[in-house]
Design brief:
This protein is mostly helical. The chain is 43% helix and 10% strand. The chain has helices spanning 2-23, 30-33, 35-38, 41-46, 50-63, 66-71, 73-88, 100-116, 119-125, 127-156, 172-192, 195-199, 202-211, 230-233, 257-261, 291-295, 337-343, 349-353, 386-390, 401-404, 420-423, 430-434, 468-472, and strands spanning 217-220, 240-241, 246-247, 267-270, 310-311, 315-316, 359-361, 371-373, 407-414, 440-444, 454-458, 481-491. The strands form six sheets. It has a two-stranded antiparallel ribbon. It has a two-stranded antiparallel sheet with strand order 2-3. A hairpin with a 3-residue loop joins strand 5 (310-311) and strand 6. The protein is elongated, with a radius of gyration of 27 Å.
């Protein structure tokens, strides 16, 4: 059937491109496809992107919940898992009534959490963000490990078509939550098709209200129906009751399975029940094009073993340890910790796209999985604004390179007991040399002693909190200078 084929092709393309958007570590794909993240329903609402929201609602009012079966990557992932089970066990679904109290109860909890700024609960329920975390935490390490294998092979042949990247878990709690989310959604999809979409997902509940009034719907022709029940047994939304010849349009995602299975032409996808635009075409078995997408639903969490860093081959360099910051650092463009808490859904796209290893998911219970900054692996380079370019919700506003160099997200703090000139009596000055804003100056520890070691003094009015000083400080494991975040960002 042509309708089903078009839906599958569109869903496969969108699903593949969004997945690659989270996997890409080179920063090239976001220039072309970052809009796919911004047309997701909840991010568009949080970003106050009225054009996208209105278009998605109009699509629902005309075609039904095609958003859930084409645009939402978590919905497409469920279809893939359900399809795999369908290869083993056919005609396995049955009609079940709407669990309205659960659907609208969870939607109410979601809205309260959204208004109250309880970002961790919002992140757990947001469908697009859930899929983003699954890809970024479960699939991306495998993808990067495979890239490193290719890089090793290319290097053997003196080719630089690939380059090595660090494979590491940015947050163990987020990794565990991502794995648990995948298992729960996969089990629900394996057993009940669209159970998650029609009982838990807040976006599905919102769109279901509009889908009841859609212009195009699945209609029964009672005269042609032979009560064979194939439509009900193949409805992954469990919304078709063949006995009463009725369809719960609030749960129908317009997948086309029922139309494909009906052998008597009793079902049609049309404006009214009198029109028949369906056919009793035989099942199309050509699904080879979508095996690539289905492979993405299965992953192993095998991480590549990191090589030890050595100083000239003489000694192992001890890894840095993150300091205990009183105020977490949020990315430039986030405006404030409050704006981040109210708009971020923890999708991990900014974390996945950060080329300097600065962003990682927060472990704070109220802000769980929202991005926070730390400088053990790199620092926030003034010439990079990638996180602000890819954020779909407005939690990180788009900023220019000029703005990036003048937004103060925190300030550096010197720790005397860790400073090498004080502890070891040797010259350093690394923090002063690498400060991009000239906010650090070296002065004598004792101004009355000519041989006194030179120590850094921070001009907080000029410091932007980029973390170059903290990252490049040679003191281990704790840097002698670190960045304390600001609740409210401002220009200097």
């Amino acid at each position: 059937m042509i309708l089903k084929r078009i839906r599958r092709v569109l869903a496969a393309v969108v699903f593949l491109l969004i997945t690659l958007l989270f996997l890409d570590f080179s920063g090239t794909l976001h220039h072309w496809f970052s809009w796919l993240a911004k047309i997701q329903f909840l991010p568009a609402v949080l970003a106050l992107n009225l054009v996208v929201v209105v278009v998605l609602l109009l699509l629902t009012l005309v075609f039904g919940r095609i958003y859930c079966s084409i645009i939402c990557p978590l919905g497409v992932m469920q279809d893939l898992i359900s399809w795999l089970h369908g290869r083993v066990k056919k005609n396995r679904f049955s009609y079940s009534g709407e669990i309205r109290w659960l659907r609208y109860g969870l939607l109410g909890v979601f809205i309260v959490a959204l208004v109250a700024g309880v970002g961790s609960l919002v992140a757990l329920l947001a469908p697009y963000s859930s899929y983003g975390r699954i890809v970024a935490n479960l699939l991306k390490p495998v993808y990067e490990a495979g890239n490193n294998v290719l890089a090793g092979i290319a290097e053997h042949y003196e080719s630089y078509a690939f380059y090595h990247v660090d494979v590491w878990i940015r947050s163990l709690p987020t990794f565990i939550i991502s794995a648990a989310t995948f298992v729960i959604v996969a089990i629900l999809a394996w057993r009940g098709g669209r159970t998650y979409c029609n009982t838990i997902c807040p976006v599905g509940t919102v769109l279901s209200f509009f889908a009841r009034f859609s212009w195009l719907k699945i209609h029964f022709d009672a005269d042609k129906c032979r009560d064979c029940s194939l439509c009900t047994k193949n409805c992954k939304a469990s919304c078709i009751d063949f006995k009463s010849h009725s369809v719960d349009y609030s749960r129908c995602v317009v997948c086309g399975n029922c139309l494909d299975k009906c052998k008597f032409g009793a079902l049609s996808y049309s404006h009214s029940a009198k029109k028949t635009t369906t056919g009793n075409n035989p099942v199309d078995g050509s699904r080879r094009s979508f095996l690539v997408a289905s492979a993405m639903a299965t992953t192993a969490a095998a991480l590549a073993q990191e090589k030890k860093k050595v100083d000239g081959g003489l000694a192992v360099i001890e890894d840095k340890v993150a300091p205990a910051r009183q105020t977490p650092i949020t990315p430039p463009g986030s405006l404030s910790a409050k704006n981040m808490a109210q708009r971020c859904t923890g999708c991990q796209l900014c974390v996945s796209e950060c080329p300097n290893g600065v962003l990682r998911p927060s472990t704070d219970l109220l802000k769980l999985m929202q991005p926070t900054m730390s400088y053990e692996r790199g620092y926030c380079r003034p010439e990079c604004n990638r996180c602000s370019e890819v954020c779909p919700t407005g939690a990180i506003k788009p900023i220019s390179h000029e703005d990036k160099s003048s937004i103060q997200i925190g300030h550096a703090v010197w720790v005397k007991k860790n400073c090498i000139p004080v502890v070891d009596g040797v010259e350093c000055g690394n923090c002063e040399r690498h400060c991009p804003t000239g906010a650090i100056q070296m002065v004598p520890l004792d101004e009355n002693n000519e041989e006194s070691p030179m120590i850094p003094v921070v001009n907080e009015a000029k410091c932007i909190g980029c973390g170059a000083c903290e990252n490049l400080c040679p003191a281990r494991p704790f840097s002698a200078i670190y960045v304390e975040g600001h609740e409210q960002h401002h220009y200097i």
